[in-house]
Write a structure and sequence with these properties.
Radius of gyration of chain B: 21 Å
Strand content of chain B: under 5%
Number of helices of chain A: 2
Largest sheet of chain A: none
Order of helices and strands of chain B: HHHHHHHHHHHHHHHHHHH
Number of strands of chain B: 0
Helix content of chain B: over 70%
Structural class of chain A: mainly alpha
Distance between the termini of chain A: 42 Å
Oligomer: heterodimer
Largest sheet of chain B: none
Distance between the termini of chain B: 72 Å
Chain lengths: ~60, ~425
């Protein structure tokens, strides 16, 4: 069991290492796009959590 | 003689072009027609019942929207030979890659549950119990993918796409007024004024036309089919034909429910089928067959979209051209997704309505990200070369993507907080 988990963890680490460096050149517009996307997703997740909290509260 | 020679030459050229297209045809048509899945059929049926023919013009506007988004996946797949999940991992790093992959896994699984809901409710109209539908569908989909050839899988999928046209004779059988269709449907208008409810319907129609799994599915299908750069023009044509076909089917559904069920509140396509059967037996039957086919097509594509994505990232063999011994994990993930989604539908009292709503909200978290990545990847001139987006393509694609992001976000919010838009 532990060995299986260790193997899975190794696999994930290998994937992370393989894609460690983004292939796309991080120009200004790419950086801004990704930043806006992060902000958008954080806001959306906050809305989802708010909805969940109000549902649980009621 | 010269005229005959020229005529013969033109004819042969035409035949060759058709033959060539038939070789390339597939991913575009399959993804677009599968886009009219069980949820999509319900949306179109409800739109027709609520607003009659008045929103046909809006559906027609969605043809270029669907085309311009999906054709980018054809170019990306044919040039990079990578699926969308792998392209995101490789292009933007592991963080965005994992985010997209996990999000895709959740959205696909939930959507698959809604496809099973559609299929079971469609066949219940004919007295077939839900458990039998689930078992038969899993066996059928298993048989289709396990033949070990992409080509065979694709042609069977195209056959089911053809069955999706069953709505067309149904529309003629209810004898709609051509005058009303032309005057109400083809002239842009907002029936009853632009209110919250109309906005919700417009957003729902957009939401059902562009779904996140479509990007992942078509790009992976292009790669699995082995399409090359030289095939891109035919791949684009295939996508264009698919987007026209999908909207034609949508329009005919609107015509059916707009003619017979005008003013009726439609909660599901199965309900529309049952109600149609009361007055137009065969039209209702066609609607139910079409709903089952739509769910089946959706299930075929969605389960594959996930399995392809996992295979790309985990480095498993992930092609329909491999058999189960060569790609065990690819087929295992395919069947696990399928069986678990089918099983949920059979659980008594499962929160299926909640799942349907949840799909729409979760899809909103993935769609903007996938679309932004798509545009950025298509601007990567270093790897895309001459197939990178031109300034005009960026203008068109960028505008469409922005509009979709804004509207799908509003749609997601309106699902979360229904009272917000009145």
């Amino acid at each position: 069991m532990l060995r299986s988990f260790a193997r899975i963890a190794r696999k994930f680490r290998a994937i992370n290492a393989r894609y460690d460096t983004p292939r796309i050149r991080m120009s200004g517009s790419v950086r801004v796009s990704l930043l806006v996307l992060r902000v958008y997703l954080v806001l959306l997740v906050a809305l989802l959590l708010y909805k969940f909290a109000t549902l649980v509260g009621s | 003689m010269n005229v005959f020679a020229k005529l013969y030459y033109t004819l042969r050229k035409g035949v060759k072009a058709v033959q060539l297209y038939l070789v390339i045809a597939g991913p575009g048509i399959v993804v677009m027609v599968a886009d009219n899945d069980a949820g999509g059929i319900t949306t179109y049926a409800a739109t027709g019942a609520k607003y009659g023919y008045n929103l046909i013009w809006f559906l027609i506007l969605l043809i270029p929207v669907a085309y311009y988004v999906q054709e980018m996946t054809v170019r990306l797949g044919a040039v990079t030979k990578r699926g969308h999940a792998e392209a995101i991992f490789s292009g933007f790093g592991a963080f965005w890659g994992w985010f997209s992959l996990i999000d895709l896994m959740i959205v696909d699984w939930l959507t698959l549950v809604t496809e099973f809901v559609g299929m079971t409710s469609a066949l219940e109209i004919f007295g077939i119990p839900g458990w039998l539908t689930v078992v038969l569908v899993i066996l059928l989909l298993g048989t289709i993918v396990l033949n070990g050839r992409y080509w065979t899988w694709e042609k069977i999928a195209l056959l089911f796409c053809a069955l999706n046209l069953v709505y067309i004779p149904g529309a003629f059988m209810v004898h709609p007024s051509m005058h009303d269709i032309v005057h109400q449907g083809f002239i842009p208008n907002f029936p009853g004024g632009f209110d919250g409810q109309l906005f919700f319907f417009l957003m729902a129609n957009i939401g059902t036309t562009i779904a996140p799994w479509m990007l992942f599915f078509q790009q992976s299908a292009v790669v699995d089919k082995g399409m090359l750069e030289k095939d891109i023009p035919w791949g684009k044509f295939d996508t264009w034909l698919g987007s026209v076909l999908t909207i034609i089917v949508a329009v005919f559904i609107v015509v059916v429910t707009g003619t017979v069920l005008r003013g009726v509140d439609i909660d599901s396509a199965a309900q529309a089928s049952a109600q149609l059967q009361e007055t137009h037996h065969w039209v209702g039957t066609f609607m139910a067959i079409g709903l089952f086919d739509a769910g089946l097509l959706g299930a075929i594509c969605i389960s594959l979209a996930s399995s392809w994505a996992f295979g790309e990232i985990f480095g498993w063999a992930h092609s329909l051209n491999t058999n189960i011994k060569e790609a065990p994990w690819f087929y295992a993930s395919y069947f696990i997704t399928l069986v678990t989604a089918g099983a949920v539908v059979l659980i008594p009292g499962a929160p299926l309505v909640l799942i349907t709503l949840f799909v729409q909200v979760i899809a909103v978290t993935l769609l903007p990200a996938a679309l932004v990545f798509l545009i950025l990847l298509l601007n990567d001139r270093e790897h895309m070369g001459e197939y990178a987006n031109s300034p005009l393509q960026n203008l068109i694609g960028g505008t469409i993507v922005m509009v979709i992001i804004v509207l799908s976000t509003l749609y997601g919010i309106s699902v979360l907080f229904p009272s917000l838009f009145g």
